[in-house]
Design goal:
The complex is a heterodimer of chains A (140) and B (175). Chain A has four helices and six strands; from the N terminus they run H-E-H-E-E-E-H-E-E-H. Chain A is of the alpha+beta class. Chain A has one domain: 2-Layer Sandwich (Phosphorylase Kinase, domain 1), CATH 3.30.200.270. The N terminus of chain A is likely disordered. Chain B is mainly beta and 175 residues long. In chain B, strand 2 and strand 3 form a beta hairpin. Classes of the chains: A alpha+beta (140), B mainly beta (175).
């Protein structure tokens, strides 16, 4: 089950934050990104397109933090998202050196999320938008 | 057209007691919505508490465009959780419902049924259904004890008296 997978890979994820990804960003600009990325809606029961986040892909080994790559309806990378459980942060877990889907970031949104399949505890969404129109394209 | 997942949880009948009748919805079908804010900051069942007559068909519908939800009763047969439904009632679990999907369950054993959303129990997305009324044959009231439930879930169950008094009770902050 996905939550168990998240738990099992949590420690590994912290060590495998794939900083090299930032230097291979060209491969991520269009959907689908290469393996080990997998579509989130194929891993857990979530809609293909999540309003505000887009069509998400993630390397399961990096759960729960991600990065999650958010693509717009035309298949263009629009955002990189991180999901950090509140209780983990409270208990001292730090999420350092996380990879990014693209180097250009026009704005960042941070907000609370009560949970969803895959990251089923209350957590923060940290959303890096990669161009000024990205948020609008991901809205619906 | 919504996908409908169906399950009929049929149990024993009951004999109504001769007490002052509280407000109990006797409609043949009652909907319980699954909702959430756009960014998922808050998720809830609406209503959170509902009183129904025995044999009412409950329909859970996911109205949350950005999330999936379950309606899962507390029972040892389902993920080894504490029993918080009447003895003799068949445990039920909707599985994950995507936006627009629905699940139906018919509750016939009188008593108090507590349920939750699997990915959102820690966000207090819980609900309580009261079937029949105290004194009905086989009635079992609210579970005693916390078991392994998180505190935030325990405080999310509306009081049985409030549900029976009003018929339906909304989650805090919802109308």
């Amino acid at each position: 089950m996905f939550p168990n997978l998240a738990t099992a890979t949590f420690g590994v994820a912290l060590m495998l934050a794939v900083p090299a990804l930032a230097h291979d960003e060209g491969a991520l600009h269009e959907t689908p990104p290469p393996a080990p990325y997998a579509k989130v809606s194929d891993l857990v029961a979530l809609p293909d397109f999540l309003p505000g986040l887009g069509t998400l892909f993630v390397d399961p080994a990096t759960l729960p933090a991600g990065p999650f790559l958010g693509y717009d309806r035309d298949g263009k990378l629009a955002a990189t998202i991180y999901m950090t459980p509140i209780d983990s942060l409270q208990n001292g877990t730090a999420y350092d050196d996380l990879a990014v889907g693209a180097h250009d970031v026009s704005s960042v949104d941070i907000y609370y999320n009560a949970g969803h399949p895959g990251v089923d505890k209350p957590h923060a969404h940290v959303v890096l938008f990669h161009d000024e129109d990205a948020k609008a394209r991901l809205a619906k | 057209m919504p996908t409908r997942r169906q399950m009929l949880a049929l149990g024993g009948g009951g004999v109504a007691a001769l007490i002052a009748p509280p407000i109990v919805h006797a409609a043949q079908v009652e909907e319980i919505g699954m909702r959430g804010r756009a960014r998922g900051e808050h998720v809830w069942f609406t209503p959170a508490g509902l009183a129904v007559a025995q044999g009412t068909l409950l329909r859970f519908v996911n109205h949350d465009a950005g999330n999936s939800h379950t309606a899962t009763c507390y029972h040892p047969a389902l993920f080894d959780r504490p029993q918080r439904i009447p003895e003799g009632a068949t445990p039920w679990d909707s599985g994950f419902l995507l936006p627009g999907e629905a699940f139906e369950v018919r509750l016939t054993v009188p008593g108090v049924y507590d349920y939750y959303c699997i990915p959102h129990e820690h966000a207090a997305m819980v609900g309580r259904i009261v079937v029949g009324r105290p004194g009905d044959h086989g009635w079992l009231g609210a579970a005693v004890g916390a078991g392994d439930l998180p505190d935030v879930a325990l405080i999310g169950f509306p009081a049985v008296e409030a549900i029976l008094g009003a018929g339906r009770v909304m989650a805090p902050g919802q109308s």
